[in-house]
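dumping this here before i forget
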Amino acid sequence: MSRFDNKLCPVCRIPLNDKSDVVVCPVCGTPHHRACYLKNNCCGVESWHASGFVWNGRLPDEKPEEAPQEEQAAQSEEQSEQAVSQDASRTVENDPHRAEYPGGTPGNMNSYGSIDLDELVNQMRNQTMDDTRGEDGVSNRELSCFVGKSVMHYSQAFSVFRAPVMPGQKKRHIFFNICSGLFAPVHQFYRRMDLMGFALLLLELVYYVPTVFYSMGVGSVDVLRNIQLLTSGLNFVAMIAMCMFGDYIYYRFCVKRIKKIRMRYDDGRAEGYYQALTESGSPSWLRAIIAILLVYFAEACVLLLINRLGSV
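structure:
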């Protein structure tokens, strides 16, 4: 296949082919049919020589060739990918829940599609040290100092609760934390939520009330059995609820305590404010151990009461 195939002769404007007797202009390199060149005895584009024209595959007045189908398909595919990428970027930027993700946007992904851990850690560090107060009146830095341990988990949970929403939408209150429900009420005492811990402890002790009544001879067996079944169901529902809403309850507890501490430190401007937050909110293993002992002691007291009543 000749490089002149399908190229126009500047005289007759008929495409050349591999059977054509081709003559090339010595000045500009434009191919001609030999007969056409000899007919005029000159180049068909001689008038363009003065402007420095050099044939590069098409004539001066010839429109650019259309790209081959394969090249057009490749260009179309590239344009489609760019459009999809731009749409995805706009979707993430306009997503009202983008703050739920600690990394913020897919910008944490490198060119190989894996997460850039260094960038993610830097973004998390910047997020947890942000002094800007949100709609709830507290900042990420205050919450992080108050939470202490497991700040990575709670920063994600609090971001979900504090994320701005579109008009007509409700803020999210659910963020799963198995420890909050499975280890209740010890977990609540560990996080210094004493009132919630005592409430969950009393709910556990309610399970033994029908047995105490039975030992005292109060009520029928069927009624007491149904009450005990009901209290068992309530404890299970409470465990599931704490797994789902425990972090939100803790978030509201943190906000309330932070505001109280801030009032004692000149609205957070006095020296030692963040240290006070850390000391006041950091979890306590001592409280957790005391809570475990308290649970066993309360259950032991109830069982002892049941045995004493049963022996009377």
